[in-house]
# Entry
Amino acid sequence: MHAALVPGHAAAQPRLAAAFVTAAVAAVGAAAALAAGRGGAAVLVLGLSLAAYAVDRSVELPLLSEVHVHHGADVLGLATKALEAVGLWGAIVTVSARSGPVALLDSPG
# Structure
């Protein structure tokens, strides 16, 4: 989803477009990590993505303040974060099923 937002922001808001590229790469990385048995990494990436959205929608971020108008939550953003939350839950369940709840902190996979 984040990758689809890049073209619409690239010219007028290049820093925001770069943030969307970063989020898209992180999402692919989380999926690859989970597929490779690195569920702890997927939990970290998805958790950070959810936290970043909450921060972005709660306060004005200095890096994006010149190009990004603070709007609060939006339907597309909330839908995307809902899917990420499902992915986070799936990663937690996968890691926990493999090694128990402590595996989230010290799992090699």
